[in-house]
Amino acid sequence: MSAPAPSPLAIVDAEPLPRQEEVLTDAALAFVAELHRRFTPRRDELLARRAERRAEIARTSTLDFLPETAAIRADDSWRVAPAPAALNDRRVEITGPTDRKMTINALNSGARVWLADFEDASAPTWENVVLGQLNLIDAYTRSIDFTDPRSGKSYALRPAEELATVVMRPRGWHLDERHLADADGRKVPGALVDFGLYFFHNAQRLLELGKGPYFYLPKTESHLEARLWNDVFVFAQDYVGVPQGTVRATVLIETITAAYEMEEILYELRDHASGLNAGRWDYLFSIVKNFRDGGARFVLPDRNAVTMTAPFMRAYTELLVRTCHKRGAHAIGGMAAFIPSRRDAEVNKVAFEKVRADKDREANDGFDGSWVAHPDLVPIAMESFDRVLGDKPNQKDRLREDVHVEAADLIAIDSLDAKPTYAGLVNAVQVGIRYIEAWLRGLGAVAIFNLMEDAATAEISRSQIWQWINAGVEFENGDKATPELARKVAAEELDHIREEIGEEAFRAGHWQEAHDLLLKVSLDEDYADFLTLPAYEQLKG
């Protein structure tokens, strides 16, 4: 272990948690403090650059591939580092937060990979941040079990060879961790807290288990942000004394700006990159956010009407597959968010067919794997990829040289025939209120109307309300999208929830706060960059 300990970090306004001393050791906090000292100033510069780029998009209503990096795209010689054995076959990945029960169930799910999520599927309470780390440590030492206090059912890990490989997702660059501050009172970026604690405690242990510290990188907006992550990895590996290249990172291409820099992102991370992922809901949210004042041609219809077969979504996913395979990286497909019903077999039948069709399309398009949100979907997705892959671990040899995507294809939103509907507005309000209420209770992954929703779905919901109002959309029933209509729909939904769950449960929840926050971020003229920023101010714990 190198380097003298820098000024220690202070734990601010946080109630002590059981066994927190096992995670928040002096040595671990010294490492996080050094990450903070070295890299937070660059993080701040890159956040400022995001705002500048957004202003440029507002001025021009267009995006293009970067002229200054054309040489990287034209150079056919470079490849990312070969995938380690534990990440070579990723045909099905399950996602979810790192609470104790989910940790066991995800590892046991039969999926090849578990995305252990500290980001959109986890509300960042101090308990979730710290105990989520503890659960992963316990999983790697096989000292984890769980008994459901309500059902009495017990959960334990299967044999090691049957467990999913963990790929951990830290928070995005934009969120700070309010409970950790340096000597000047400056908060540490949540990304560095999540990455730092996990890497410090587990990098060596994972190598001994025949795996390694693997990460999903969320909300990346440019290759310069990928370069920052690469520099973090280089420093971290030296600091704890593991070989360079031990880290592997898969980048979520879930912002419209990153879609124009896929090759450059892989290039910056080439010694540590293992793939790119198509993150559907955040991608749509990013399109609305960046082109929100671009006029009628950028107005999205209801979110459920924007399927992956929409021309601009097809351009995005096919470009992703081609880019990854050209550079020797895995291409990972999008989320199947359906949650099976225990009561309605017909709902399940229809939904399973949709999931199967979606996964068949991804496998046939050349993806090497895909996401599901529920263990019951693992066999369906596995079947789709088994049919195409057979005994091969991936299909990176399918170069998709038939794919040709122009810059304009990625933002051809007006190629869709679908239009916003009144029912779409109602659904956006329903999902927004119900998700935010759960998030304020510390839950980041929530089943709503048989779909697993996370922060990305709440973002697209509030963004669509904002966009439709500001674009003066008229719905098929003659109603016009206005703040008054949004307030009316939200009030009706609040009344409906009160009736549905009863007065006592309603009062015990955060329903009014969720209603008010949804309306604030949907109606404010000054569009909030991320819903989670004002929501975090209201999050207890």
UniProtKB/TrEMBL annotation:
Catalytic function, reaction form = glyoxylate + acetyl-CoA + H2O = (S)-malate + CoA + H(+)
Domain (Malate synthase TIM barrel): residue spans on this chain: 165-413
Pathway-wise, it operates in: Carbohydrate metabolism; glyoxylate cycle; (S)-malate from isocitrate: step 2/2
Q: Which Pfam family is one of those matched by this entry?
A: MS_TIM-barrel
Per UniProt, residues of the Malate synthase C-terminal domain are 420-539
Q: Which InterPro entries match?
A: Malate_synth_C_sf (IPR044856), Malate_synth_sf (IPR011076), Malate_synthA (IPR006252), Malate_synthase_CS (IPR019830), Malate_synthase_TIM (IPR001465), MS_C (IPR048355), MS_N (IPR048356), MS_N_TIM-barrel_dom (IPR046363)
Q: Where is the signal peptide?
A: none
Q: What is its EC number?
A: 2.3.3.9
> Record's GO cellular component, any one?
cytoplasm
Task: Could you list this entry's UniProt keywords, alphabetically sorted.
Answer: Glyoxylate bypass, Transferase, Tricarboxylic acid cycle
Which positions fall inside the Malate synthase N-terminal domain?
18-70
State the name under which the record lists this protein: Malate synthase
